[in-house]
Amino acid sequence: MNGLSMRGMEKSFGAVRVLDGVNFDVRPGEVHALLGMNGAGKSTLMNILAGAIPPDAGTITIDGTIYTFSSPREAKQAGIGLVVQEVDTALFPGLPIYENVAADEFVHVKQRPIRSLRQEKERAAALLRRVGLSLPPTKLVRDCSLHEKQLIVLAKVLSSNARYIILDEPTAALSEAETRRLFAIIDELKQQGVGFIYISHKLKEVQEIADRLTILRDGRVVYHGGARSLPLEDIVLHMTGTKRTAAAKQARTYGSDIAFAARGILIDKTGTTVDLYAHRGEIVGIAGLVGAGKTELAESLIAHRNTSGEWEIDGRRYVFSSPYEAIDAGLCLIPEERRKQGLFLPESVKTNLTVRLLSRLSRWQWISRAKEAAEADGLVRSLGVHPPSSTTVVRHLSGGNQQKVVIGKWLNTNARVFLFDEPTKGIDVHAKQEVFSIIRSLADQGKTVLYFSSEFHELLEVCDTVYIMVDGRLLARLPAAELTYEQLVYYCSGGEIHEPASRFRDAVEKNGAVHS
Amino acid sequence: MSQPAVSATPSKKTAPSILELLYKHGTLLAILAVIAYFGITQDRFFTYENFSDILRSISIVTLVAIGITFSLIVDGFDLSVGSTVSLATIASAAALVLYRQEIFVTLLVPLLLGIAVGLLNSLLIVKFKLPDLLATLATMYAINGVQLTYTKGFSIYNDMPLPDGGTAPGKFIPSFLFIGQGELFGVPFSVLLMLFVVIAAHLFLTYTKPGRLFYLTGENREAARLSGIPVNRYRTYAYVISGFFAALGGIVLASRIGTGQVSAGASLLMDSVAAAYIGFSVFGAGKPNVIGTLFGSILMGVLLNGLTMMNVPYYAQDIIKGAILVGALALSHWQKK
């Protein structure tokens, strides 16, 4: 029997059942897309296939042979190839291409201590032709573009005779033209009988390249079938399920004057520029998938990254070249990596909270310990930091309480525009609600909030307005009240924004009716 | 060694482990143990002259080590301090002996040179983003070369013969010699200077806004930058302060020995680095701090003095210095975990 098939795959981590009897198969010469929201079980399934983790139950059959992989190496020998999303982690930047392509053999083949460089280069050149790369095999990998590196990884995978190749978000960092070229190469390899498992959040591209689709949700297969027959809206509905309804939102009111605007802000990673604005007291969401460039935008707005452009805060124009200047003008960033970017871990809650207030708390540069303690205690109380002590070392706080400290350091400052980058990452449900209420009260005080997130439910819960961010560009500015979760997923996955998306509304209303 | 009184508080629930106690007070215990050992075995150890001698040498190491402490606080490192000490020693001697300058210029020139070295280091590290160890290694060699080139490898001393046949016009003046050799109220002036600098630096780093920002810059540079702290400015200050204190140490050294010896500061690098790292653990601070640095240099000073008395040659002392630095590094690493 030809083809790869996984039957009845099950996997639990602790009490959480991540895969619950999943069947999945790939034929030679096809592209089979595996879709699902974060946490649906895609990564777990692919990690099992690549030999990285053992399944609790289920069988893997490849071309008629049943396998149980106990290491990635065994999976590789059975013909499974993996092209990871972060291709840099799979390559040696200081080595030439041909050595990278042959690297696996150095590691695994012990019998051949002497290599023929000429043969190796010829072999690499042949593999590079197969993936459509016309580069000299002696070029160093670090001098190659991202797209070229990806194809080198693909060539490396082919060099170990992979017949089934997993592509994990292969187009996440590619331009339109590069994506086209990659698709042409995939087609070419399909003709040669290679089977692909294609994982992506960019649903438009999935429809174009995939022959068949399997959609996972909560560890189960919820759709399996041809890719082209299923409309994009239906894919989104399968991925998200129709269980959730838009939470009834209290309408907030905010000012009509523009408190913050940024024009032509360059995002260095994607080379794109962004314009955005926000009213006084408005909570503006920036919705985008992981890798859409949200963090890069947030860090560019605070001038932490190399950027260019023009800022406007309360009618005054600025050009910032460092966070020092941006913060001085009234911006602040609550960064995504709070332990790495937001906290002084060995220091106390007090020291962390007062870092921006030292001028006010000191005279002739001498910090008044009493004033500092009083200020910090006040903030600890109003933020509800637990344990309620300003002398705790921040390292020992839970994620949610650490986040309160990161936010708290800006509360009594002159900050007028708050940038929150994934503020709910890694904190529990209760702390999330507390963070939301801090954000709302900031906005109610007339501060402007920009909320960068890939958690679409939370965006809809907190924000008044949502920008759609795809590939480093802001595509639309939409009122949150008129958006549904499914629409947001659809738009951020590359769906056309001005298409009538009434089907989602119908689904939600139907669902709402069932619940009420 | 005496039995530690751990059993005195057995009921306390969160009694610190012996290991922690050792970490917190290990340096003090080590200093006491070393003093006790040398006091018993060496007759001349417990004499006023000897203690005065120890304190004078400690004062120079401490001044240099405080500079290193500043560079460590901003998560940097300054290897060039030893060469800066040599440069300052030569510069002050040259000002006195070769150019007949009075005290003001004699102090100003080396201090300005120290600041210049600090600015050069920060240019390389902060502006050009070179790794601190390598950048200051390079300046260490270059500065050492500068002072050797200037003196052509010869020390500068009173009445030294000049190439043109005459003798040097100036000499080490009493007001300059007072810095390293004089006493106030029976205490060596250099020790008073050291105590003043230690207290001032400690108060500055512990109680003032810029002191706080130095520490925050070093603890998490990215968080500091995103908190609006001008981190590059503070890193620059730290290297300038480091150069300044190394130059001050060089002045005291020149005054103490009364000549401008070439490469006189070379051995001070290791001593002061060790002192600063030993200081990490004093009272369990877990970070670079000036009081700890003082205790570190006391330990180094007492140890080296005693070893010299025991006729351990200076090259063999280097083995012990190296071992102590490894120990201090291991201790500070263990604390971080």
In short:
By secondary structure, chain A is an alpha/beta fold. Helix content of chain A is 36%, strand content 24%.
Folded structure, characterized:
The complex is a heterodimer of chains A (516) and B (337). By secondary structure, chain A is an alpha/beta fold. Helices cover 36% and strands 24% of the residues of chain A. In chain A, the strands form 5 sheets. Chain A has a 6-stranded mixed sheet with strand order 6-7-8-3-9-10, sandwiched between helices. In chain A, strands 16-19-20-13-21-22 form a 6-stranded mixed sheet, with helices on both faces. A 4-stranded antiparallel sheet of chain A has the order 2-1-4-5, covered by helices on one side. Chain A starts with a strand and ends with a helix. With 337 residues, chain B is mainly alpha-helical. Chain B has one domain (23-31, 46-336): ABC transporter involved in vitamin B12 uptake, BtuC (Orthogonal Bundle). Chain B contains 13 helices and 2 strands. Chain B has helices spanning 18-41, 48-73, 81-98, 103-127, 132-151, 174-181, 189-207, 209-219, 221-226, 231-257, 266-281, 290-309, 314-336, and strands spanning 183-184, 187-188. In chain B, strand 1 and strand 2 form a beta hairpin. In chain B, helix 3 packs antiparallel against helix 4 (103-127), helix 3 (81-98) crosses helix 11 and helix 11 (266-281) crosses helix 12. Classes of the chains: A alpha/beta (516), B mainly alpha (337). At the A-B interface, helix 11, helix 12 and strand 18 of A face helix 8 and helix 9 of B.
